[in-house]
Design goal:
498 residues, alpha/beta, Leucine Aminopeptidase, subunit E, domain 1, 8-stranded mixed beta sheet, 15 helices, binds ligand BES, binds manganese (II) ion, binds zinc ion
Length: 498
């Protein structure tokens, strides 16, 4: 779907959308449309409960006197409170409304957003971005979809007082949206198509954007001593891979910001096997790694002036005659030993090796890991916030702000010694699970044991965020691409030369 920006012109066919804010419906634009249509707009408003609330859309078919086939009034909520993120949602909602309507062209009239404080170019760009994000669908395996269910909308033109400004802002946002789509593609793929090696192959595409892509295979991982990660992988016929993405848009000796992603391409639970119901969802247990690669792609595509290294720990967690057993003791890359009480608590075993290695090799000052780590996180926060755990208040505040600005929201969770003690065990340095209570926190405490002194670290448990069972303004149900915009925003605000 193509998005372009123009100063106002003439609508030829297609659909036309105009924006109104709550309780302020009689704008000049609306009044003039009402006059052109011989009062149809007022009549429609009267026969409807539309009042300009955020998310409301009023649609008129075949409006008299207008070139457009449809006219839509789109509510933005209270003018003074409208944010860039609200505008994205408005753009996404209009797209969703018309996607399969038969219309091929849509014009968004954003020339007069009265009382809205978002800059004109920015507002137009965000409307376009919202539509673009909502237009994603994963249909590569649908061979019999009726034509009537397929999207028809191909082009969106946004009218704005600042077309040049909108254009340049949108170019950057679209690069980030491409990163989100890259992630959604990976997260959507089933486990028979996406396994560690095929993930590594797909990562090669980033070399075209100037990213250095390196893959560590099983032999190298064994030589390096990734005993915890290899223990998870040993029941699978698929070889594990650690995919390293180095992007340097800063140059010099800037220490990199390191992102680490959990990439379990399918999580059966291993010998501690999961129940059958819903297990298909565990194809998206690589959503952390997916977010990391999508974010690096976004940064590279928009030529961000930063240095970032993304490391994705890719394994498949399977039960088999070669699988690890509950009670096995493994030696991690860091040298610390772990008693594997539950083979389904595998994500932390993968992450701990990749995190320790990343710190040895790249000497970062800042490291953020992303993982669909615990079901308990979904119990705590549902699907509204990712959980954040950190050893550093500044980093936590920066991530929190990036969450608010990007829409990928985070909520900070507590950590501390009393939780840490819960993973002690007599036979090794630690065990991989604590009691049922505070399951997300003990998982974070486990990871913290692999963070070096002086490294500001945050762990983002995104179990509730990478997949959505319902449609929203910015995505159709399925993979959300959560994390890409968050990391992009975090870098833009804190680690990018201006
Ligand atoms: N990948 C799961 C976490 C998960 C569960 C994500 C449901 C999304 C939805 C993780 O590997 C896991 O199995 N965690 C266990 C940990 C437990 C054994 C301590 C869990 O949450 O049940
Ligand atoms: Mn698991
Ligand atoms: Zn898992």
């Amino acid at each position: 779907m193509k998005v372009s920006f123009e100063t106002a012109g003439a609508v030829q066919g297609g659909a036309l959308a105009v924006f109104v804010t709550q309780g302020a419906l009689q704008t000049e634009t609306v009044q003039s449309l009402d006059a052109t249509t011989g009062g149809q707009v007022t009549r429609a408003l009267k026969s409807n409960r539309f009042n300009g609330e955020a998310g409301q859309v009023l649609e008129l078919l075949a409006p008299a006197g207008l070139e457009a086939n449809r006219l839509l009034l789109v509510g933005l909520g209270q003018a003074a409170k409208v944010t860039a993120s609200d505008l994205e949602k408005a753009g996404g909602s209009v797209y969703a409304r018309l996607a399969t309507s038969g219309e091929t062209a849509l014009t968004l009239n954003a020339t007069a957003l009265e009382g809205v404080s978002v800059d004109a170019g920015e507002a137009a760009a965000r409307l376009g971005l919202g539509a673009r994000l909502r237009s994603y669908r994963f249909d590569r395996y649908r061979t019999k979809e009726p034509a009537s269910k397929k999207p028809t909308l191909e082009a969106i033109t946004v009218w704005t007082g600042d077309a040049a400004g909108a254009e340049s802002r949108y170019a950057k946002l679209a690069a980030v949206a491409d990163g989100v789509f890259f992630t959604r593609d990976l997260v959507s793929e089933p486990g028979n198509a996406l396994y560690p090696k095929s993930f590594a192959e797909r990562a090669q595409a980033l070399t075209d954007l100037g990213v250095k892509v390196e893959v560590l295979g099983e032999t190298q991982l064994r030589e390096l001593g990734f005993g915890a990660l290899l223990g998870v992988s040993q029941g699978s016929a698929n070889e594990p891979q650690v995919v390293i993405l180095e992007y340097d848009g800063a140059g010099g000796d800037t220490p990199p910001v390191v992102f680490v992603g959990k990439g379990v391409t399918f999580d059966t639970g291993g010998i501690s096997i999961k129940p059958a119901a819903g297990m298909e969802g565990m194809k998206w247990d690589m959503g952390g790694a997916g977010a990391v690669i999508g974010a690096v792609r976004a940064l590279a595509a928009r030529k961000a002036k930063c240095r970032v290294v993304g490391l994705c720990g890719m394994v498949e967690n399977m039960p088999s005659g070669t699988a690890q057993r509950p009670g096995d003791v493994v030696k991690s890359y860091s040298g610390q030993t772990i008693e594997v009480i539950n083979t389904d608590a595998e994500g932390r075993l993968v992450l701990c090796d990749v995190m320790a290695y990343a710190q040895d090799r790249y000497k970062p000052k800042v490291m953020v890991d992303l993982a669909t780590l615990t079901g308990a996180m979904i119990i705590s926060l549902g699907h509204e916030y990712g959980g954040m755990f950190s050893n550093d208040d500044t980093l936590a505040a920066q991530l929190d702000a990036a969450g608010k600005a990007s829409g990928d929201k985070l909520w900070r969770m507590p950590m501390g010694d009393p939780y840490d003690k819960l993973i002690n065990t007599p036979i090794a340095d630690m065990k991989n699970v604590g009691p049922r209570e505070a399951g997300s926190i003990t998982a974070a405490q486990f990871l913290q044991r692999f963070v070096k002194e002086g490294v500001a670290w945050a762990h983002l448990d995104i179990a509730g965020m990478v997949w959505s069972d319902k449609d929203t303004a910015l995505w159709e149900k399925g993979a959300t691409g959560y994390g890409v915009r968050l990391l992009d925003q975090f870098i833009a605000d804190n680690h990018e030369a201006k």
